[in-house]
From TrEMBL:
Keyword Transmembrane helix attributed: yes
Residues passing through the membrane, by range: 43-66, 99-121, 127-149, 220-241, 261-281, 293-311, 323-356
Assigned keywords, A-Z: Membrane, Transmembrane, Transmembrane helix
Protein name: Uncharacterized protein
Organism of origin: Chitinophaga costaii
Length: 372
């Protein structure tokens, strides 16, 4: 049990430290201490009394559940964790499922704890139906997760849930280089893509929901997009590993640095295309086309800056996380201070300077270092 705890639960919380810091800041760092109980009481009362808000909360919890399931299934598929099948996999089915339930409850605990607090408030104030809905939802989520883990133990060679036509297209279509990584993500790591996109869409929908009753303010949109980019930070981090493993040969090709920069820009435009479509639909309603292009440029420039920082030698996940949050707070205060145009210019200048300076000097990691 201690080995399984280390493989799944401990590793999950360590690998998602950045994610939990963002969530902690949004839930506890945006409100002064005295107003914190009222803030959370307002959120809980909101989804207990409004079925639209409740549906949104269930979507957010569902996205987090998908993230949990994706992590466990991906860990079980790693070659150096094959011991799982020789220990956990040989136990009787009933015990297998008890362990699966323990793992799922342990990593899904933040939602269960919040839901438990909401249930206490709901029962005290007589909101019985919302309690039943959230309780059944979380029970179903945990049950489905347990069944998926059991199924993976029985069928260790299951293929990723990628449509056959997409795998065929990936093998037969000669793609431009700026599409290599988006296709790699969709083909090889679909669960990470869908989890990130679900959380990203939930953040944007929440942003649009709060903007409905107020005058259109591009700053609110930019704050939502800032959180959206933060959710993509792990995808940006893994891009370096993908380049070091599969695209090292491209560094020796006679491609001008400006063209490489443009190709990277196109890559992030494709990765964020679903969010841009959603943003376009909502901003078109108020005719804010200039603000839309501003937000698109701002989000891609932010992704480019995070990517360019990875060109510094031996910047590990911990150092990268510190940089991500440092940039997050700087951009946050600039946006809140009505310095959006200045922020965009600074992002573009910083990105170009770092990329042009560091790209020729970067030394790819060895395959053994990446696996560690």
């Amino acid at each position: 049990m201690k080995a399984l705890h280390s493989m799944f639960i401990h590793r999950y919380y360590v690998r998602n430290t950045a994610f939990f810091l963002v969530v902690f800041y949004l839930l506890f760092g945006t409100v002064q201490g005295g107003g914190l109980p009222r803030f959370h009481y307002g959120i809980i009362k909101g989804f207990l009394t409004s079925y639209d808000f409740l549906l949104m909360m269930l979507a957010i919890w569902g996205a987090y559940a998908l993230k949990c399931v994706s992590f466990v299934l991906k860990t079980m598929a790693l070659p150096h964790y094959a011991l799982v099948y020789e220990t956990w996999g040989v136990l009787p089915l009933a015990r297998q499922r008890r362990i699966a339930a323990w793992i799922q409850v342990s990593i899904y605990a933040p939602v269960l704890v919040y839901n438990g607090v909401a249930a206490v408030i709901a029962l005290r104030e007589g909101y019985i139906l919302p309690v039943i809905i959230t309780g059944v939802f979380n029970m179903v989520v945990c049950l489905v997760a347990v069944l998926l883990y059991s199924r993976r133990l029985l069928h260790a060679d299951l293929e990723a849930a990628t449509p056959r036509w997409l795998r065929w297209l990936n093998g037969h279509w000669r793609k431009p280089s700026w599409l290599y990584y988006p296709f790699e993500l969709v083909i090889r790591q679909p669960r990470m893509v869908w989890t990130t996109k679900a959380a990203s869409f939930a953040i944007l929908m929440l942003t649009f929901h709060f903007m409905e009753d107020a005058r259109f303010d591009p700053r609110a949109l930019m704050l939502g997009v800032l959180v959206m980019v933060l959710l993509h930070s792990i995808i940006i981090f893994r891009y370096r590993y993908f380049e070091d493993l599969y695209l090292t040969f491209m560094r020796n090709l006679p491609i001008p640095i400006a063209r490489r920069y443009g190709q990277l820009w196109l890559t992030y435009a494709v990765l964020l295309l679903p969010e841009f479509i959603l943003l376009g639909v909502h901003t078109a309603r108020v005719g804010a086309f200039l603000d839309m292009w501003m937000v698109v440029s701002y989000s891609i420039a932010l992704c480019m800056l995070l990517h360019s920082l990875l060109l510094y030698p031996r910047l590990g996940e911990e150092g990268y996380t510190r940089w991500v949050f440092g940039i997050f707070f700087i951009v946050l205060f600039m946006v809140l201070g009505h310095q959006t145009l200045c922020c965009l210019v600074l992002l573009l200048v910083a990105t170009i300077l770092v990329f042009v300076r560091q790209f020729p000097r970067y030394e790819p990691l060895m395959e053994e270092e990446i696996k560690e």
